[in-house]
Amino acid sequence: MKIATFNVNGITSRLQRLLEWLDESQPDIACLQELKTSDATFPLQAIEAAGYGAVWHGQKGFNGVAVLARGAQPVEIRRGLPGDPDDTHSRYLEAQVHGLTVASIYLPNGNPQPGPKFDYKLAWFERLIQHAAALCEAREPVVLVGDYNVVPSNEVGDIYSPKSWLDDALLQPESRDAWRRLLAQGWTDAIATLHPGVPMYTFWDYFRNRWSRNAGLRIDHLLLNAAAAKQLASAGIDREVRGRDKPSDHAPAWVVLK
DNA sequence: ATGCCTGTCTGGGACAGA
User: Fold this and answer.
1) Distance in angstroms (rounded) separating the CA atoms of residues A177 and A251
2) pLDDT tens, A10-34?
3) Is-catalytic flag, A39?
4) What are the structural domains, with CATH classification, of chain A?
5) CA A149 / C1′ B13 distance in Å
6) Which residues have CB under 8 Å from A243's CB, separation 6+?
7) What's the CA–C1' distance between A74 and B17, in Å?
8) Which is the catalytic residue, given A147, A168, A220, A249?
9) Which residues form a coiled coil (predicted)?
10) Residue A89 backbone dihedrals phi, psi, to 5 degrees
11) How far: A139 CA to B6 C1' (Å)?
């Protein structure tokens, strides 16, 4: 069972990159973020033609998350996190498919900080922590994947160099503290567990030659509860996707469960 | 040192992203 996460940065302009990656990587489940399109304009036909069923939560111009499943129709469990009825952002979609529960997460970026966007990020994180507690305790496998917009540490496995990012919302102690408290519920960070100490970046800014210099950040994560972690076989990053024509600024990350 | 690129909505320039 291969589960992947991919921030596509606009599914409309990224559709060919997405389809070729699905064909190559053959994930059983693919969670997408930053669709940047409305529910009505989600390219369902092309995704079904590629052999995938889908549920999605779109938003015109911004945000947007989806869960794709190869040869299956995901069953939607929840769209949006509980705890704030005024939150209009499409950032959380939870579904059951292929015998497990999976969530596609697009955690707020939070820049600039300090400020209201950073406050929103931290508040959203607290709502995720609240909601994730019961999922972590589930006896069935649960996988929370997506763009968490947190660089977990300043180590080279997580960032090429923290120097120019020290004031960024992705590295702030508050962001990292929330990340640590989420993991402390009992989640396994699949990439960090299987590839400690080596660069496992998932994002490279479009400018400043960040891709050609491999000046990347590890911000897309795959978290497994105990039942899922028992099945953990391998994990990786499809880096080559970032080097193609008209790429997303993120590369897909994936985990295989036995 | 700096959104320096890129996508979206829109129809040129603003906003958002990380």
Assistant:
1) 25
2) 999 999 999 999 999 999 999 999 9
3) no
4) 2-257 (3.60.10.10)
5) 28
6) A211
7) 29
8) A147
9) none
10) -80, 140
11) 42
pLDDT digits (tens, 9 = 90+) for A86-120: 999 999 999 999 999 999 999 999 999 999 999 99
Predicted TM-score (pTM) above 0.70: yes
Contact between A141 and A257 under an 8 Å Cβ cutoff? The reply is: yes
* Three-class SS state of A26: coil
Question: Are A138 and A223 in contact, with CB atoms under 8 Å apart?
Answer: no
Contacts 24+ apart (CB under 8 A), A230-235: A231/A1, A231/A141, A231/A257, A231/A258, A232/A188, A232/A190, A232/A193, A232/A194, A232/A256, A232/A257, A232/A258, A233/A257, A233/A258, A234/A194, A235/A190, A235/A191, A235/A193, A235/A194, A235/A195
Tokens of A115: 């400020």
Residues A198-208, mean pLDDT to the nearest whole number: 95
